[in-house]
Amino acid sequence: MKVTIVGHWGGYPGPDGATSCYLVEKDDFTLVIDMGSGALGKLQTYKHVLDIDAVILSHYHHDHVADIGVFQYARLVHSYLRGVENILPIYGHIEDKSSFNSLTHDFTSGVAYDPTKELTIGPFQIRFLRTKHPVPCFGMRITDGESDFVYTADTAYQEEWINFAQGAHMLLADCNFYAHQDATKAGHMTSEEGAIIAQKAHVNDLILSHLPQYGDQEQLVKEASEHFSGMIHLAHEGFIWHP
Ligand code: ZN
């Protein structure tokens, strides 16, 4: 399995950047997790839009789904050009009906996931954890049978993450706030909180993502390292993680 960071900003993209978007690949299968603002432009530096096999969305905040509409147009254009008719599945939850319905377009189809059940997409098995966020949002544990990682999506700190992420090879954590800030009210986590989960869950690697546009990002790593003894990476565009 290979995970590529396409977009890592929280809330809105920094200059020439993109918000949440991650590529997960195994053999010839490509899954995209979330498709935030600016993601489609970046995504095409790694993959042709027709070479994406599935998309899965954690929730419907703009910084996670802003580019879904234009991605649907891109699929439409290239499907016509290449004369292909396959419909791309976009997996999402159905606790927001109108957002879910917008996932279906000429060459894409919204597919509801049941967060209480394990989901198989291509070579990946996915389990879900409801996060603590102002709107319904689901984190994911994704495995290819050999290795696995946990994506917290957007969440305030909750104990449940420790069990959910137990023994994972990597934790891709919401790190929208610095240690001295209160992230809970906004439904996000600090550098410290992500690191505490990583440590208690005994994960190998921690990637800090959904990053703030202000302050010194290296400070986030410093703060996390006071609570987590494993490898810590600061998310950046094009960063590739292998187990
Ligand atoms: Zn959100």
User: Structural class, please?
Assistant: alpha/beta
CATH class group: Alpha Beta
Number of helices: 7
Low-confidence stretches: none
The tally of structural domains comes to 1
- Give a list of the ligands: zinc ion
**Spatial order of strands in the largest sheet:** 6-5-4-3-2-1-14
CATH fold-level label: Metallo-beta-lactamase, Chain A
Annotated CATH architecture:
4-Layer Sandwich
Q: Any descriptors?
A:
alpha/beta; Metallo-beta-lactamase, Chain A; 7-stranded mixed β-sheet; 14 strands
Walk me through the structure.
- The structure is a single chain.
- With 243 residues, this protein is of the alpha/beta class.
- The protein has one domain (2-241): 4-Layer Sandwich (Metallo-beta-lactamase, Chain A).
- It has 7 helices and 14 strands.
- It has a 7-stranded mixed sheet. Strands 7-8-9-10-11-12-13 form a 7-stranded mixed sheet.
- The model has no long low-confidence stretch (mean pLDDT 98).
- Bound molecules: zinc ion.
- Zinc ion binds next to loops.
